[in-house]
Amino acid sequence: MERTGTATAHTNIALIKYWGKKDEALRLPFTDSISLTLADFYTTTEVTVLDSALPKRFTMNGSPVQGKAADRVWQYIARLQQRFGVRGSLAITTENHVPTSAGLASSSSAFAALAGAFAAAYGLQVDMQELSRMARLGSGSASRSVYGGFARWIAGSDDATSVAVPIDEHPSFALRMIAVQIDVKPKAISSTAGMRRVVETSPYFPVWVEHNVDACERMQQAIADSDFTTLGELAQQNALDMHALNLTARPGFTYFEPQTLQVLQAVDQLRQEGVECYYTMDAGPNVKVLVQPEHEAAVLERLAVVVPDATMLSTGVGPGITMSAN
Ligand code: DP6
After folding, report:
1. Which is it for strands 90-97 and 33-49: parallel, antiparallel or unpaired?
2. CA-to-CA distance for 301 and 207, rounded, in angstroms?
3. Is 283 in the pocket of ligand 1 (CB under 6 A)?
4. Is residue 104 scored above 70 in pLDDT?
5. How far apart are CA 7 and CA 325, in angstroms?
């Protein structure tokens, strides 16, 4: 009989970034990282273990997936099957509710949902930390997407110890994130390639590693204190540190586009005017603005003037993974 597992996982935005692996195959990071899981951007994946020797299938949003993206997924599945000693041809169906226009990487929700659906389909008894470990093997940031609210990925020292833990799944302070999408072109340098170049060539990489230890401690304290100002300042500085690091690689590179700077300047200007908001950015030119609900409208209004062609989507704090089997 065919068995199907389904899981829904939400994307997360890193407030203190993961940017550098000490083991590429296991996706072991150099540093801890801290993230916020988002409400409106998520992936639902269904995995069916097929009866007989039926061919494997993978569809996303109704269309078959082939090429590099499919290869990455099937290699990942082979790895999980080997780890758990299970076999079978699989049908994978994914619905990605992460609008490209949000400029948010969907790999965090995608691999967390896939790990969850895989575990549910095979009836594996996995706890949240094991699930986080499984998700990490697909994409580092996915390790944090098994939890809602704030999560911390502990770098650890090997496969068993590199897992995310929840910090506060139901934060008491209301936080909003506005995704400002200024470019939908595919990334020139993937996050995997970007962080690799930085690790291998930037003379400043050790400084980043050392600095992030302290940044994580301070961020965790800011979350515990519901201190939005400190949270925002730390997140903004950490994003600048990461993007500065990219310029110091050999050869240097940047994800910034001219409009990126316009948005960053507008956020700094808004803050000077008393509208408290902060930015962060991942491996792309789009900007994410952190703001409390009372200032959201003012930020949206200003950015609509500064970058009139940009798409803006705002969202709140999202939940952890849900899984079911039948
Ligand atoms: C800038 O998780 O996409 O978003 O492990 O190579 O798949 P791989 O990288 P990925 O990198 C995310 C980088 C980041 C920061 C972060 O999410 O912590």
Report:
1. antiparallel
2. 38
3. yes
4. no
5. 9
